[in-house]
Amino acid sequence: MIKIDNSAASSSPTWRSLEVFVRDQVQPGLQRVLAEEVEELLGRAKHARRGTAVSGYRNGYGQPRQLALLNGTVTVRRPRVRNLDARFVSRVLPLFQRHTPEVVLAVESGHRESRESWAEILRDLTARGLPAPACVIDDGALRLWNAVGQVWPHAAEQRCCNHTFRNTYYQFPKAHWRHRRTTNVVESPFAAVRLRTSAAKRFKKVERATATIWRLLRVTEKRFRKLNAPEQCRDVYRGVRYADGIEVPAVSPTQKAAA
């Protein structure tokens, strides 16, 4: 009988895991290159005795940094060097090139921000070599969304959070802002429901599944955080206006007429 050792084959990357395998090899390779830069700068290996040629010395590593590559993102740590005549800047990982700079791409006059005016700008950007973006962030202009869907149909759309907050967030009592930041009041109870239903796998009757979910929600309901300033809910329902979280005094018909 001939025994075949498949240990090497089992550790070799497959087509499905090739990308992850390559990315895992890039990270230690980059870290070695960064260490070699410091070694070249100081003229000695990491644990060698310090000479008199260069006065600098190693001082650990900086905070982990995410480095975006074509095949994904890897995490590296830049070696720190102290007591140098000039600040050490890595050729591989420059100190101040951490973010892509923001630039102005176009300034054009348009007809009342119409869809065609926006589409014309987007088509011009494409003609000048700008690839379709992954995401477009806007203040909520409907005509821009229409133009983006026409010119860049695969781009994701996101409403500017600042505009969303200004339009809706601050128009409610300040005591309620904490509750409007997330949908955790919905997500948190259903996390327990998903845990239970995933463990059960399958229910024989829809009614039993519904009853189980209802019972779990009633249990989690007891742990709900109480709403801040619940008495103001009545005012919100009645249409009381708020600006920056503060109630705006109602204007009487007489005051309106005088104005």
Overview of the structural elements:
The protein has ten helices and eight strands. By secondary structure, the protein is α+β, with helices and mostly antiparallel strands. It has a two-stranded antiparallel sheet. A two-stranded antiparallel sheet has the order 2-3. It has a two-stranded parallel ribbon with strand order 5-6. Helix 3 (115-127) packs parallel to helix 4 (142-151) and helix 7 (184-200) crosses helix 8.
How does the SSE layout of this entry go?
Layout: H1 7-11, H2 18-42, E1 57-61, E2 65-69, E3 72-76, E4 79-82, H3 115-127, E5 135-138, H4 142-151, E6 156-159, H5 161-167, H6 177-180, H7 184-200, H8 206-221, H9 232-237, E7 242-243, E8 246-247, H10 253-258
Parallel strand pairs: 5-6
Antiparallel strand pairs: 1-4, 2-3, 7-8
Query: What is the terminal separation in angstroms?
Result: 103 Å
Shape: extended
Poorly predicted regions are 1-5
Biggest pleated sheet: 2 strands, antiparallel
Beta-strand percentage?
5-15%
DSSP helix fraction: 40-55%
Structural class: alpha+beta
**C-alpha-based Rg, rounded:** 30 Å
Order of helices and strands: HHEEEEHEHEHHHHHEEH
Overall pLDDT score: 78
What's the arrangement of strands in the largest beta sheet? 1-4
Number of helices: 10
The number of distinct β-strands equals 8
